[in-house]
Structures are given as structure tokens and as C-alpha cells.
Amino acid sequence: MEYVNPEGLRLDGRRPLEMRQLRAEIGVVARADGSAVFEMGNTKVIAAIYGPREVQNKSQQINDQAVVRCEYSMANFSTGDRMRKPKHDRRSTEISLVIRQTMEACILTHLMPRSQIDIFVQVLQADGGTRSACINAATLALADAGIPMRDLVTSCAAGYLNTTPLLDLNYVEDSAGGPDVTVGILPKLDKVTLLQMDAKLPLDTFETVMQLAIEGCKAVANYIREILLENTKQLEFRRGV
Amino acid sequence: MAAASGSDLSSEMEVDAFRRLFPLSFHERHLLKSIRPDGRTLGKARDTIISVGAVTSANGSALTKIGCTTMLAAIKLEVMTPTVESPDEGCIAIDFHMPPICSPIVRPGRPAEAAPVVAKQLSGTILSSGMIDLKELSLVSGKAAWMAYLDIYCLDADGSLFDAALLSAVAAFSHLQIPVVSLNDEGRIVLISEDNGGGKLEKEPVNKEKRKLKLATIPLSLTCILHKNYILADPTAEEESIMETLVTVVLDSSSQLVSLYKPGGPVLAQTSAIQDCVALTRQRLKELQKILNEAISDMEVD
Prior knowledge:
The complex is a heterodimer. By secondary structure, chain A is an alpha+beta fold. Chain A contains four helices and nine strands; from the N terminus they run ββββαβαββαββα. Chain B is of the alpha+beta class. Chain B has a single domain (40-176, 213-301), classed as Ribosomal Protein S5, domain 2 (2-Layer Sandwich). In chain B, 30% of the residues lie in helices and 26% in strands. In chain B, the strands form four sheets. In chain B, strands 1, 2, 3, 4, 5 and 6 form a six-stranded mixed sheet that branches. In chain B, helix 2 crosses helix 3 (23-32) and helix 4 crosses helix 5 (161-175). The chains are: A alpha+beta, B alpha+beta. The interface between A and B is medium-sized, with 29 and 30 residues. Chain B: Pfam families: RNase_PH (PF01138), RNase_PH_C (PF03725). Chain B: It is found in: Cytoplasm; Nucleus, Nucleolus. Chain B: Residues 45-179, 218-280 form the Exoribonuclease phosphorolytic domain.
């Protein structure tokens, strides 16, 4: 199957180095301390943060830092065929762990000892790149909740099909069986916090694909900064500053 | 006792602290003036918004908001073999989820108490109201019929969960479009996608075109809280947690009573109180019907 046609266009009409359209909104769940919706093309994800609050399971309380907990779940209708077990299957558990460890690295947990921060992510529509969309949504939601962080965490995925590196794969491209490299970075500090890949890829091609994903992450970071600035201006305006 | 100590301290502390420490007296002070903390009168419901077609990958979907309570409903159709007792009928499976994002009291590993209760109520109301004729979901008698999976996700739980869930279920069914399918040579139902429908049409389509379900009647509801002599319509989560007696009334489009639900509670209701609840529901029904019709006609214009 041809994923990049001879004119250089992908199945959905994008160029190989083009990301899908990003759209984000903060403060969507009124009851949560922080929340955000993040869309990358047709992938739509909603994240809600509850915390810092009292640790619910006292045995897990840590005396000098906060406990971070994360749950990833997909809505039954989010994928093409209706999902039977959206929550505790292996993939969801793995992604929950990945998101937790990624966010834990950048939250300043030592500032909130003996407390708990809950990150809940719900996928409403899945079209490839759900892991990245979840991390981006969680970053925005944490910023909305006012939880101190070292830096934003942004994430993006890239692949390699028909001998072309492709940025931001959608579901069809992802299921093509080619390599899929997901990268999460701290943009200001320019450090990589998440790097996952399955499939075989020669090392120099891997370098190219990883660089491409990092560029994608930086583009997402710029967009997230714009959204947060816009949100702050709105808050200022509402307070009459 | 609590009320007395509340009024002694009320002049000495901030409103927010008073609201947290003595919630009942905070609300009662408002009720004395026939108003609620968010400024509504006792019989008024919150602003309602309906948006159909929110989930593009589903056959029918709707997003509804009553105040801050947000529900996302989506219907997916799958083909199944009908049962022997009813070979011309399809089936509807209704599921209500409260994921942890919706409320601070829901935790992973400890699902909300309200979720299965609302799910059961919804199932009962939708199936018994006669809104959908299951015969419309049949494809080939005795061999194939549609199974409609309705999944409702609560994205923000701020009181009146059943009302918002029923509204979103009804809106999703109004938006549902049954896709075109045909029977292939092995006797299996196959989806005809729009692009290859023109060319190789050796298979006769079972249903000619995408059609919508005919809804016989549309059940809509209102939940009220009874507290002493007051009746509060459309409670928020805060009001529900302090004043626990709920009455839910479901009426259909001809204002006939479909369901009445009062699951116990400290306040015992007189018949007059129940009748007042039904009257409030009748008023709310007209508002909701208007909003629902606008939302559906907006969608059709697109």
C-alpha cells in the first residue's frame, strides 16, 4: 500500500513533515482543579487533574514528596470498532504508567509533601498518536491547576514508511506496521524524557526520525505556550487588571 | 444546634468558609429569600446546551450540558443474530460511565455509586417509554438485526446526572443514522461504504439509503430536591450532597407520566409535593423540547 504518493502527499493530504491540526482548550471540567481538551487531527483527548489533595491510601503516602497517580482510559466509541474493555487491558495500563512517569519527572513533587496529584486522561476519539495527545493534554491541565513544574512536557510521534520519515502518524499509517517513534521532551531545557519505539530501524534513519519527532514536539510546545498566554490574558481581563 | 452556632459565627467569617463549614444553614438562608446560591429561583433549571454529532466515528452522538454537568453519548451499531423468540427485533444496550475525570469523589478502583444506579434507571426509562420500536432495527428477519450500543460518558458531574444523561441519549437517538448495508454471498452483512457503492453493486443493498430512526415519543425528565417545604428544581452536586431527598419525574412528549422515582430520603413527600414536581417537569419539558428541536434542525442544515 502506498502511504506517500509520487507527488509527496500522504493519505490525508498532508506533506511528510506536516503535523495534523492542533486544537486545545483549558478549564473544560468545572469540578476538576485543572483540565484541558487536546486535539491532534481527529484524536481527541480530555485530561483532568485533581490535586494536590490528601493521599487516599495512607500506606502510599511519601513524607517528603507528592504521589502522582495516572489513569488512562478510552471511551467505548473512541475507536472504529466498539471496544469491549476500555480500561484495565494491558495497553491502557502501560500507557498509564508511561504518562505517570513522564509527568512525575517534571512536576516539582518535593514542594507538596504528603499529598497526591491525580492525572486522569480520557480518550474520546482515537486516530493515532493518543499517547502524545494525552501527554500534551496532561501538561495543559497541570498548568491550569497551577501545579509547579520544571518545564512543559510535549510529545509527538514520527514514523518511517515508503522510505520517507513521516511526522505525526494517524491510525492508518500507524497500523501499517512500520516503525513508530514517540518522543516526549522538556522544550526549554531541551531534554528528552520519553522515547519509545517498536520495530526495526537502522541507526542513522532512527536519528532522522527522532529529530523529526523532536521538531514536532517543539511545534506543539509553541502552540501550548500560546494557549496558556491567551488564557492568562483572559484571566487578567476578567479580574479587571 | 448547628444552625444556632452557624448564625453566631456567620458575621465573623468569610462567605466561602461559612459555605464549607455550615453548608445547610448557608443554603437555608438563601431559601428563606426564595433564591439559591447561584442566583436561580427555586423552580428554575440551569442553562442547557445540546450539540449533536460530536463524535464523528459513531453512528449517532450528542454532547449535552446542563449548567456544568456534561454528558457525551454515542451510539455504535453492530450486526447480530436476533433471538429465536423475537426474530424481527433488534436490541439496544445502554451503558453509563463515570470516569474519574468527572468528579473528585470518583477514584480508579472505586467506581462511583451513582453510575450503576443511573445506568439502570436509563435502561428502564428508555426501553419502557416506547421511544424506539425494536422492529425498526431489524435487517433480515431471523438472520440479522442491529445491536445498538449506547455509551454515555459523564465528563463533569455537577448534579442532575440522570436528566443530562437522558437528554443526551435522546439527542443521540435523534441524530442516529443507520448505515447502508448489503448481504454478501456467504450470507454475511457487509457495510457499503459510499465510494464503492456506485461501481460493483452486484449485491443488493438490504436498506436503500441511510435512514434515521422514527422516535414514537421523546421522554424527558427533571430532578427535584425536597427540603422541608421547599422544592428545588435541577440541583447542583453541592445541593444534592446536603439535601438528600430526590424526586425524578420523566414525562413523554404528550406530557404523560413515564416514570416517577423517589428513592427514599429524609423528607416524606405529600401528594401535593409530588404534583408540584410533575408541574415543574411539565414546564421544563417545553423548554427542553424547544432546545432539542433547535439542535437537531441546526444539524440538518449542515
